């Protein structure tokens, strides 16, 4: 039996990393749904300039600031993880810092805490097959980013007193200077011949930025109702993981788009690779349907690189 959210029709939602790729898109999606946004950034003047967006400057993991950020809020969305940093920094900000904000939210009566996790927390080694929300997670030798994201999810699960949702996207396609897959990875492919090497048959699990932001906003504003079981919606008072992914694709699809736009040749190689899919059946049952096709996402990618 689903439970109606007590979030108001004009909810106040805190968004950390509001000037980042996912954070900025989430702010826009929330504003479209009538929310008031407290956009948390580290540098003044960098929050999205949108009606209904109020900039808050500082480190969200500072306990005093965290308490002020969440006071009177209906929901919190966390998008920050310093993935290019060393493991100690990723643990301090991702695992410990996000927990500080979650505990502050629980202590002030925030109803929902939506964390942008990643499908990289799943074991996607060769032969692992499809992964859903019950799939095995990575081991401690999986690398700094997957391990600290896994540990952040586990830390959030321990914070009781509010409904927590772990949104797990795979590769995020979408334009932006900080976009890994539309900007940073193509730059490496352009400049470094070794970055052009790949197994064309390896799965390329992806989601478009706009569809990811829409999912986050629907959950944070209470439009996605809580339920008694994770297949119905976020479990009220519990911690629920949900995958978001677009249609099936392969590394060939991505690399041929990038190398074709840049005028370089891909270098295909045979090696063991994951060929499963990130299953988003749960998200679909919650009412989420991606609107951006693979063809449209790759066309946007190619046009951006050509420009």
Which descriptors apply to this entry?
307 residues, alpha/beta, Rossmann fold, 7-stranded parallel beta sheet, two-stranded parallel sheet, 9 helices, globular, NAD(P)-bd_dom_sf, Nucleoside-diphosphate-sugar epimerase, NAD(P)-dependent_oxidoreduct, Epimerase_deHydtase
Question: How would the blueprint of this fold be written?
Answer:
Layout: E1 12-16, H1 21-32, E2 36-41, E3 53-57, H2 63-70, E4 75-78, H3 87-107, E5 112-116, H4 144-157, E6 163-168, E7 171-173, H5 180-191, E8 197-198, E9 206-208, H6 209-220, E10 239-243, H7 251-262, E11 267-268, H8 281-285, H9 294-306
Parallel strand pairs: 1-2, 1-4, 2-3, 4-5, 5-6, 6-10, 7-9, 8-11
Whole-Å distance between the termini? 50 Å
The proportion of residues forming helix, as a percent range, comes to 25-40%
Which fold name corresponds to the CATH topology of the domain at 12-169 and 209-245 and 275-289?
Rossmann fold
Structural Rg:
19 Å
Pfam families: Epimerase
GO molecular function: aldehyde dehydrogenase (NAD+) activity
Domain NAD-dependent epimerase/dehydratase: 13-221
Protein name: Nucleoside-diphosphate-sugar epimerase
């Amino acid at each position: 039996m689903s439970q109606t959210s007590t979030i108001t029709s004009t909810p106040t939602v805190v968004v950390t990393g509001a000037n980042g790729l996912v954070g900025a898109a989430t702010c826009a999606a929330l504003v479209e749904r009538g929310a008031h946004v407290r956009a948390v950034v580290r540098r003044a003047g960098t929050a999205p300039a949108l009606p209904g967006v109020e900039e808050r400057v500082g480190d969200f993991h500072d306990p005093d600031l965290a308490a002020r950020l969440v006071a009177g809020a209906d929901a919190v969305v966390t998008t920050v993880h310093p993935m290019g940093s060393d493991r100690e920094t990723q643990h301090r900000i991702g695992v410990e810092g996000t927990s500080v904000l979650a505990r502050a939210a629980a202590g002030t009566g925030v109803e929902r805490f939506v964390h942008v996790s990643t499908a990289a927390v799943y074991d996607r080694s060769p032969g692992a097959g499809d992964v859903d929300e019950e799939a095995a997670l990575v081991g401690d030798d999986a690398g700094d980013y997957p391990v600290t994201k896994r540990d952040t999810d586990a830390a959030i699960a321990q914070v009781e007193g509010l409904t927590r949702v772990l949104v797990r996207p795979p590769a995020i396609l979408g334009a932006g200077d900080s976009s890994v897959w539309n900007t940073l990875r193509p730059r490496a492919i352009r400049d470094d011949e070794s970055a052009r090497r790949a197994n064309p048959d390896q799965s390329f699990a992806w989601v478009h930025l706009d569809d990811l932001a829409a999912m986050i906003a629907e959950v944070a504003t209470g439009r996605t109702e809580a339920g008694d079981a994770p297949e119905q919606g976020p479990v009220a008072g519990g911690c629920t993981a949900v995958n978001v992914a677009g249609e099936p694709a392969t590394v060939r699809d991505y690399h041929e788009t990038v190398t074709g736009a840049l005028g370089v040749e891909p270098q295909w190689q045979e090696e063991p690779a994951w060929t499963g899919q990130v299953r988003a059946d749960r998200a679909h049952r919650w009412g989420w349907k991606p609107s951006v096709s693979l063809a449209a996402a790759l066309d946007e990618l190619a046009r951006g690189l050509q420009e």
